[in-house]
Amino acid sequence: MNTTTTIPSPPAGQDLANVPMKFEATPIPVADFDRAKAFYQRLGWRLDIDLQFTEQIRGVQFTPPGSPASIQFAPAGPKPLQRLLLVVDDIEAARNELIDRGIDVGEIWHAAPGQPPEPGRDPRGQSYSSQAAFSDPDGNQWVLQEVTERIPGRV
């Protein structure tokens, strides 16, 4: 089985935007802001704000350690978010830290593109292959993904 992944460079002449646009935050649907706040604090994420703007509007924002992007709580919607990626250098260390913090994290698994998942860390240690998942109390699913070497052109 060939598991080599080739990522092409952007095509010559691709029309790339010139104006910088930085991903800042995404809303995470939660039913109970206080319960969600306690969970994300237990993760060890930085609480950026918790402001009660009006009786009906509260702003809560967290930033994962080392991340330039944040999450903001939003009223619960019809479905929780799935496969929110958290890139880590060492999936075993990240998983163990979360477990030590009382978070229920699934087992580590790996898969080549287009292949079914297999238990355990990628035996060849390839970037982007090893993953583990956990969910917040509202069912929003986070996936730890081990990245030790970035795709060319990525920061």
From TrEMBL:
Residues 111-141 are annotated as: Disordered. It holds the Pfam family Glyoxalase. It comes from the Bacteria. InterPro entries: Glyas_Bleomycin-R_OHBP_Dase (IPR029068), Glyas_Fos-R_dOase_dom (IPR004360), VOC_core (IPR037523). Residues 22-147 form the VOC domain. This is Glyoxalase.
